[in-house]
Design goal:
253 residues; alpha/beta; Rossmann fold; eight-stranded mixed sheet; 8 strands; 18% strand; globular; binds zinc ion
């Protein structure tokens, strides 16, 4: 049975006093396992907030090393970290932030042939990648392992977020089936991934605490240049190659 030490009670006091969290909620966070896919602008922020909130187990994956051009937004990584793996840089900061968090660092690029092993026995997949192709890989793992997938995307001054729960809501593929990475520009201003990843982190905490009101069946669009924030409905694609009837048939043998 999970218990909280006196130090943990002090550390998490300001969230444990929120009605609906309490000791029971904090124990749920401590038992939770979250997979963070990518330690760039999004994963930096969600990594910090997952560790700070007391999520007990983090699996963090990224195959890249820290470069100067990362530092305008990837706040887990500092100037002395240039050239070292992002997983190593992240591990150092997250352990310093919260030594109670058990972190597994996976210095690997996420691919279709290793994604299941990387995700492992995680309860949630948090998207911190920067391309649609890898997100489709994560989405297929989400659907086949029956694990919620929290998508976040950024481009220039724009951000998008949505939560996908296998078997209950549309999946990432339902929404982005026609889209590829061709039109994406690599430009990003730092606060945009921070905003998107903060929303993703809140969604992850709500899932762990078994709360309602998730950002499911909807895509949140953030237009930072004039601060227009809106939600659009996301329908399930009945012909979806990932979560549609063909997939159900495959799963039922
Ligand atoms: Zn789908």
């Amino acid at each position: 049975m999970t218990t909280l030490t006196s130090q943990e009670r002090l550390r998490y006091d300001r969230q444990m006093i929120i009605p609906g969290i309490g000791e029971a909620g904090q124990k749920k966070l401590k038992q939770a396992k979250v997979f963070i896919a990518g330690l760039g602008g999004l994963g930096s922020v969600s990594g910090y907030y997952m560790a700070a909130a007391g999520v007990g187990h983090l699996r963090i994956a990224d195959g890249d090393c820290v470069e100067f051009a990362n530092l305008n937004r990837q706040i887990l990584h500092h100037t002395p970290d240039i050239g070292i793996p992002k997983t190593e840089s992240a591990l150092k900061k997250l352990r310093a932030l919260n030594p109670f968090c058990v972190i597994t660092a996976l210095h690997e690029t996420i691919r279709i042939d290793n994604v299941i092993g990387l995700v492992g026995d995680s309860d949630i997949i948090l998207d911190g990648t920067d391309n649609i192709a890898t997100r489709k890989v994560l989405n297929s793992a989400s659907v086949s392992l029956d694990i919620p997938f929290i998508y976040g995307g950024v481009n220039g001054f724009n951000g998008t977020v949505s939560t996908f729960i296998p078997g209950k809501t549309p999946c990432f593929e339902c929404l982005f089936h026609q889209q590829s990475d061709k039109t994406q520009s690599p430009g990003v201003i730092g606060p945009l991934p921070a905003m998107v990843a903060a929303i993703q982190s809140l969604e992850a905490i709500k899932i762990i605490l078994e709360m309602d009101g998730l950002l499911t069946n909807r895509l949140l669009l953030i237009r930072g240049v004039d601060m227009v924030i809106k939600k659009i409905d996301v329908p399930k694609n009945p012909e979806c190659p990932i979560c549609g009837p063909d997939m159900e048939k495959r799963q039922n043998g």
